Amino acid sequence: MSWIRERDELIAQTLAFVQSVTDKRGETGRRDAVPLLPPKSENALAAVAHALASEAPSSAARPSAAPTGNPAASAMSPPIISQTEMANEIRTRVASFRAHQERFNREREEYFASTIARLRAAIKDVPPPRQRK
Q: N or C: lower Cβ tally within 10 Å for the chain?
């Protein structure tokens, strides 16, 4: 089955890409190698999960909760949005979308009306067919 082979190749390429992006370097400056063998078709997802888990930083390397005075930590946390602000934004976007759709409908109707008017004018200008004797 070719789709299985294509899937395995895609997974191998994805692993290579993840490794090139993360570019793990130890304290010695050399790159830690993770083998890039294409996974077996039965264990493809397990191999990807294992490779990604091995590239994730350990819990000891993760920083603990930063103090509130740290501007970098506050930039990483998502802003708190009240439900009324969110509801207002949704209403605004829906209104904008409806106005956009109404404009499209109006333009389409105008184009249709002008096309029909040109067609009717062209039909009136055509001379009547000649009668055969």
A: C
Which runs of consecutive H residues, i.e. helices, occur in 56-82? Answer: 71-76
Ranges of beta strands (E only) in 22-116 are: none
Ramachandran class of 27: left when φ > 0, alpha when ψ lies in -120 to 50, beta otherwise: alpha
Domain residue limits, the chain: 2-56, 83-127
Cα gap 13→117, rounded to integer Å: 59
Q: What is the pLDDT of residues 68-78, one digit of tens each?
A: 555 555 556 67
Give this prediction's pTM.
Answer: 0.34
Question: For the chain, what is the mean pLDDT?
Answer: 75
Find the helix packing angle between 2-22 and 44-55, rounded to 10°: 0
Q: In residues, how long is the chain?
A: 133
Residue 59 CA from chain centroid, whole number = 30
How many CA atoms lie less than 13 Å away from 35 in the CB half-sphere?
A: 4
pLDDT tens-place string over residues 9-27: 999 899 888 888 877 544 4
